[in-house]
Amino acid sequence: MAAIESLLSEDAGAKKRRIRMVISILIGVLLLHVAAGVIAGIFIVAKYIFPPPANFVVKKDVRLPAKKREHKMNMAAADAIAPKPALNDKMQSSRPTAFSLPDVPDMPLDQMLPLDPSQLMSDQMTSLSTSDALGTSSGSGSAGSGGFGGKGVSFLGIESNGDRILFIFDASQTVPKAAAAAGFPYEKIQEEMRNLIKKMHISARFGISFHNELSTNNFKSDLAPNSKTNRNAADSWVTQMFSQGKAIGGPPPGGLEGAFTLAKKIKPDVVYIITDGDYRELGNCKKIAAEIKDENGKLSQINIILFAPKGHRLEAIKDIAKSNKINVIVK
């Protein structure tokens, strides 16, 4: 109360001085804030006008390896190289279908088994005792080997190499008698051919032809796949042809020229010709024989098996064989 009374009792001059002092303080504080704001603005504007120089600093980045993720990736890689599971389930049906699956072909298991030395020696001894080979191919073939030797197919003790085999039979009436006299009746020849075809690889092909002096008759127009169906059909067809003898019927040419012409057309690897050599005409046989080649353009392996030929027949066929490296085997 005393302070208020003293303030009210002041004279006018003292009041004016006090008011001016308060105003001066307020103006000073205001100017101080304005100056601080101006200085701050100058610094902010100067920062954009005069930016500080760039300073590149390399900091060490320390990262710990992701052990769990790496382990999963390694496990996935290990699973990828593992063999895939085999599907052994067979096809089954709960109701009859409109079609039937083909029979599984017979696999030539004997070619997958190791060679039996005793069987090999037995074949060689049989060949030496039953045939007199006049092989004219390079390397001069020995008896029963057809001049080729090695692994392959064997027919009447004559071994050759190839997957495309052609059998050509002389259908003349004199051949069965000559073959039987030599110890090779046609039943045995047919059995030998049947066994050879059955032992051939599943991808192999075979052909069979009968010829007489005038015409030829073929099992197929080309080499047939080695399937069970074709083997059964060929066996029945050969049996029928053996029983018909000379009356085979078919297009020309016939004789040895017809046999060579067929072989030239279908390009086999190996040709077996079974005959007694009783041909009236040998015509262009020498020229055609030089053109018998396999699918790769290599000369085919031709084996002419003669049963009891006469002198002039043998010499004529030997002349053709010598010029074309054909094997002539006399039985």
Helix and strand sequence: HHHHEEEEHHEEEHHEHEHE
**CATH second-level architecture of the domain at 131-330:** 3-Layer(aba) Sandwich
Q: Which percent range fits the helix content? A: 40-55%
Kindly report the CATH topology of the domain at 131-330.
Answer: Rossmann fold
Q: How would a textbook summarize the main sheet?
A: 8 strands, mixed
The coarse overall form would be rod-shaped
CATH superfamily of the domain at 131-330: von Willebrand factor, type A domain
The mean pLDDT is 76
Beta-strand level of the residues, as a percent range?
A: 5-15%
Radius of gyration: 53 Å
Kindly name the structural category. alpha/beta
What top-tier CATH class of the domain at 131-330 fits best? Alpha Beta
Query: Ranges with pLDDT <50 over ≥5 residues?
Result: 125-151
- End-to-end Cα distance, whole Å, is 163 Å
Number of helices: 10
Q: Give the tally of β-strands.
A: 10
Label this structure with key terms.
single chain, 331 residues, alpha/beta, Rossmann fold, eight-stranded mixed β-sheet, two-stranded antiparallel ribbon
Explain this structure to me?
This protein is α/β, with parallel strands linked by helices and 331 residues long. It has a domain at 131-330: von Willebrand factor, type A domain (Rossmann fold). Helices cover 43% and strands 13% of the residues. The protein is built from ten helices and ten strands. Strands 1, 4, 5, 6, 7, 8, 9 and 10 form an eight-stranded mixed sheet that branches. Strands 2-3 form a two-stranded antiparallel sheet. Helix 6 packs antiparallel against helix 7. The chain starts with a helix and ends with a strand.
